[in-house]
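Need tokens for this chain, all 275 residues.
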Amino acid sequence: MFACFRMLSYGVALLLFFILGFILVKGIGVINWEFLTEAPTDGMTKGGIWPAIVGTFYLMIGSALFSFPIGVMSGIYMNEYAPQGKLVAFIRMMTNNLAGIPSIVFGLFGMAFFVNYLSFGDSILAGSFTLGLLALPIVIRTTEEAFKDIPDSYREGSLALGATKAQTIWKVLLPMAMPRIITGLILSLGRVSGETAPILFTCAAYFLPKLPESVFDQCMALPYHLYVVATSGTDIEAQLPIAYGTALVLILLVLIMNLAANTVRKFFENKLKSK
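Here are the structure tokens for all 275 residues:
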């Protein structure tokens, strides 16, 4: 059985490397400075993807600014303040169900609520809120589990020394839980960075060779741009190398965000160990 599990693990790793290698071989030929810093031209058969890179970065940061504070506070409330009973169990069940809803449903909700009802229009703000809702269940559950795994002796010791509950959470529990909370943020960013359906309904532009000037502007985004150049346009064959290059840049962008988040997580882990 151990040999079987080992072979399955190796098979998953090989599949991952095969996919990454395929994208790398197909897309590395178009990666150059102009491709990364210029706007698309000639019906997206030439030029670069700079507006899509910037738009994706804005959406990822916007979704994190929305989902991270709300998700962390919700997780803290559910584990530290809310009476454990049927209500919390119901909220936890609905949070898990929210995590399993198809992303296109979030897109439809974002279009109906943020774009139309709140009159944000097709904008970075509407797209960020929609992607934030998509990431919110992951942050909530990760935060709740991180606080749940902290032994009660830390809470009791802090309270016995005269600290309030809020001081205990802020000074004792939150620093201990922060590395796992950062992991939840990494997972949520990894999910929202590649979503196409939510931004299709809320903010993504088919062709917009300029940078957005405010959060109320539309933007290009790498996932939607990848879909466009791979499935539609004036010359599909000429656009395919650009599609592979876009996919490679998207993978690298997610990798950079993960490395940055891991650096922050290591900082909190080392800070916790030093104390």
